[in-house]
Design a protein that fits this description.
Elements (H helix, E strand, L loop, with lengths): L4 H10 L2 E2 L2 H10 L13 E3 L6 E7 L13 E9 L15 H7 L4 E2 L3 H5 L4 E6 L3 E7 L6 E8 L4 E2 L7
Parallel strand pairs: 1-9
Antiparallel strand pairs: 2-3, 3-4, 4-8, 5-6, 6-7, 7-8
Length: 164
Amino acid sequence: MAMTPALMGEAVRRINCTAVGAWLEAWLAALGLPLPAAFDGNGEAVTPRASGVVLRIGAVSRVQGLPDPRDRLRLIAIEADAGAAMPLGLDAACETLATATAKLSTATVGGSPAELAAGDRRISFFIDGGRVIELRFLDGLVGFDRLLVARLGEPGDWCNPAER
């Protein structure tokens, strides 16, 4: 399995969900990485950068109905540089605020004239299911050099379509 925009899109859909262990293991293998064997005091592990992507992975405490211990793992956040495969039709080289808004959401935070004047070109787009995608735009707001993906709230259960 190679890193592709479609695979990144799958990761966006599965962000902060449990019961994705087999999928997460396959995705990490595509990046040449193993499942984390150890977690820090916060119950998280950060992968080394691979294919332009850094992942924050966490483990939830025991969950009823998840006999596979891998399914306790959840993808907390994705950080991707401009060289990574991009999800949702995003184009790191030539995306603008207008095109990103059309692709993602009109619900945004950041990008005020004061923030831009101060050099802060981070804009967060709130998309369905509590997901948030932050883009750090380049000067002139054409192209971006970093994408962050997270999901607000408690971890969802991938097996329950209402929690995806």
